[in-house]
Structures are given as C-alpha cells and as structure tokens.
Write a structure and sequence with these properties.
118 residues, seven-stranded mixed beta sheet, 11 strands, four-stranded antiparallel beta sheet, mainly beta, single chain
C-alpha cells in the first residue's frame, strides 16, 4: 500500500502563506484523485482541494482563489499552496488518495498542523 507523508505545516500570521507537501512512497497514479482535507477542532473533516490524475482540480468555496493544488508526478508529490491565510484556516491538514474502483479514500497521511494567528 502506498504511504502518504505530509509536511510543511506551521504557524503563520493572517495574510501569510504556506506550502504543504504530500510525498507518496509509490506512484501517485495508484490513486485516481489526490486530495487535501482539513479538520479543525470540534468540526468535521472537509475536503478543501483535489486533483485528478489528469490534472483537473476542484476547490471548496472557502478556499477558492487562495489555495492551489498541484502535483509533480515525477516526484510522486502533491502540493497545496495556501495564500492569504485566515484564522479560520487553522486545522490539521491531511493528504489522501482516492481509489475509484473501491469508491473510497483509501490512503491517508498522518496530518500536519496549520495554525493561523490573527
């Protein structure tokens, strides 16, 4: 099974930027879609951005225009560039891989904490 490892989280002031990375132990083409989820304390986990194997991207309304998801197939890495961060973006961010034949997000990273101070 392909393992996913996130990095790049941290503490940033409102208006700042961070870039998260998700490194896969194998080919990210093992997954039909790669996504970034986040979970804030007391809230449900939500999908904030996804990118298909063909490069089609989708974003939650709350992050459109501020976050950009991308993938480097040669490095088996997915990125989430986060600009103009807001305190409400504070959460643990998880990378995940979707397996269409099973209709599940079949692999998850351990998460990386993003904290945005006001």
């Amino acid at each position: 099974q392909v393992q996913l490892v996130e990095s790049g989280g941290g503490l940033v002031q409102a208006g700042g930027s961070l870039r998260l990375s998700c490194a896969a132990s194998g080919s990210i083409f093992s997954f039909n879609v790669m996504g970034w989820y986040r979970q804030a304390p007391g809230k449900q986990r939500e999908l904030v951005a996804s990118i298909s194997s063909g490069g089609i991207t989708n974003y939650a309304d709350s992050v459109k225009g501020r976050f950009t998801i991308s993938r480097d197939n040669a490095k088996n890495t997915v990125y989430l560039q986060m600009n103009n961060l807001k305190p409400e973006d504070t959460a643990v961010y998880y990378c995940a891989g979707y397996i269409a034949t099973m209709s599940i997000w079949g692999s998850w990273g351990q998460g990386t904490q993003v904290t945005v101070s006001s």
